[in-house]
Design a protein that fits this description.
Blueprint (H helix, E strand, L loop, with lengths): L8 H8 L4 E2 H7 L5 H13 L3 E6 L5 E6 L1 H4 L2 H30 L2
């Protein structure tokens, strides 16, 4: 469980679950994360074996990240958390609409 304990880790795994991404793409996917924090999280996850890092032989060099087999094992847990989040948002929206309707009624 300590693998998912870091800030932004579930977000990174979620976006990498769609396929390999470059650093800039991850920054675009998660705009609230700083470059420094993203770099640290990616290094940490690579060290723990959750993702792989591949340097592309281009000029200038670009780096691509993807999930390892271990990393893909987290996908169902993160998907379940996302699903619960969606349900909570729907519930809040429903309660917000019903309470505003109750105050608007004569």
């Amino acid at each position: 469980m300590s693998l998912l304990g870091g800030a932004w880790t579930p977000n990174i795994i979620w976006y990498l679950s769609a396929g390999p991404r470059r650093f800039g793409e991850l920054r675009h996917d998660i705009p609230a994360i700083s470059a420094k924090v993203l770099t640290g999280r990616l290094r940490d996850l690579e060290t723990k074996g959750v993702l792989w890092r591949r340097v592309m032989p281009t000029s200038p060099p670009s780096v691509e990240y993807g999930l390892t087999e271990l990393g893909t094992e987290f996908q169902p847990a993160i998907a379940a958390i996302v699903e619960i989040g969606h349900k909570l948002k729907q519930r809040q929206a429903a309660h917000g609409q019903s309470s505003s309707m109750a105050t608007a009624a004569p």
